[in-house]
Hints:
Layout (H helix, E strand, L loop, with lengths): L13 E2 L17 E9 L4 E10 L16 E3 L9 E3 L10 E9 L10 E9 L12 E11 L11 E8 L8 E2 L10 E11 L8 E9 L4 E9 L5 E2 L2 E2 L7 H12 L5 E6 L11
Amino acid sequence: MSKSVPTFLxxxxxxxxxxxxxxxxxxxxxxxxxQFAIDYVDQLNEFHIFIAQCKDLAIGDVKxxxxxxxxxxxxxxxxxxxxxxxxxxxxxxxxxxxxxILRTPAAAFExxxxxxxxxxxxxxxxxxxxxxxxxTGEVHIWVKECNDLPILRVNKLNSFVKCTILPDTSRxxxxxxxxxxxxxxxxxNHTMVYDGFRREDLKEACVELTVWDHNKLxxxxxxxxxxxxxxxxxxxxxxxxxxxxxxxxxLWEKMMNSPNTWVEGTLPLRMxxxxxxxx
Length: 279
């Protein structure tokens, strides 16, 4: 074992099995193994993954007969930047040696570290200019501000909020705020309006709001919430996104019971498995 391997890991590094994702990468026949170890360092409040080396990897570029491998880790259910780490690249080798530690602060996965969002809802049974006996109404969503968002990049948090009302995942259901730059306490003051909702539809629908950090290469998920009745079902079908917390349910019920009136709340952002959007 290399002397660069941390003492607390030297007895724990062992071989892994072949990737369970073999066959998911085009014509590459995934093979080889990886030596690694995991540890939680209480003094640092960090989760560590020590990547030692890989052996007998597949050739990634068949034409050039070479591979430039690196190792990437995710801590599920977090799939975005808060839980993603990777090693440096080792060029032209099928047996790369890394001896690197991928560190993730435990705070990245604590609920309170995701911040909170202040917002208001209103159900308007009869839009202005509508019929005397309306068949559908509008859901108004007022995204006011967020507070104490997690910092991904020093002084470079550029956040915005996405919204969709499930089960509709089409493009017409997607709305978003403007991006507010360089602050963990962005003020949006943005109102979104969704029409075509009967009162009975409110029992089956769920507002999914997600907060993102924007940069040129990719948007990174910061946290979100789902406002609905949290029944686990929508129109009789079991769905995983109907999972509202008690506070989220309470706000939705207040809106349903107070038509034409704004109901306001400040709710903690949480980790979500974001609903898959239709193309």
